[in-house]
């Protein structure tokens, strides 16, 4: 499949999300490992209408498909959202869909592309994200990308019969560009 390449990396590129990919997103949003961090696992996702937040993002959000360079395979999604141009900050969200593509550095590469775009093109100063404290792979990835923990909401998320902290992490423009 062909995509419109917005940001190019070594192993992946970011492109606008194509409506033809509905089946992949339905599959991923019904996968607990993917959907739970977004608070979507408790919802039944069965049609494009249930994925409006992916295909019709609000004005303060830019969402991209993460696509492998070698074969144009869609492997996930990344967004920069809650963009506040006045205060020059935003949030980042990301997921890698199929388990076979996780832990291979694709998420880290996609984050690097979005950070460069956010700081150099959108003129942002601070990009923040939230992550569940039990998402050790995600936290390690974010730290490798330069994010630092800013704080936590204690016992904020209830899953599997227990409470988990929610961490907030951020990276500043000068930290990324140096």
What would you note in describing this structure?
This protein is of the alpha+beta class and about 180 residues long. Helices cover about 25% and strands about 35% of the residues. An 8-stranded mixed sheet has the order 1-2-3-4-5-6-8-7. A hairpin with a 2-residue loop joins strand 7 (about 150-160) and strand 8 (about 160-170). The mean pLDDT is about 90.
What does this entry show, briefly?
Helices cover 26% and strands 35% of the residues. It is built from six helices and eight strands; from the N terminus they run ββαααβββαβαββα.
The order of strands across the largest sheet is 1-2-3-4-5-6-8-7
Detail the poorly predicted runs. none
Distance between the termini: 36 Å
The count of DSSP E runs of length 2 or more, i.e. the number of strands, is 8
Q: How big is the Rg?
A: 16 Å
Structural class: alpha+beta
Helix percent reads 25-40%
Overall mean pLDDT:
90
Overall geometry: globular
Q: How large is the count of helical segments?
A: 6
Strand content: 35-45%
Order of helices and strands: EEHHHEEEHEHEEH
Oligomer: single chain
- Sheet of most strands: 8 strands, mixed
Task: Supply the key terms.
globular; alpha+beta; 8-stranded mixed beta sheet; 6 helices; 178 residues; single chain; 35% strand
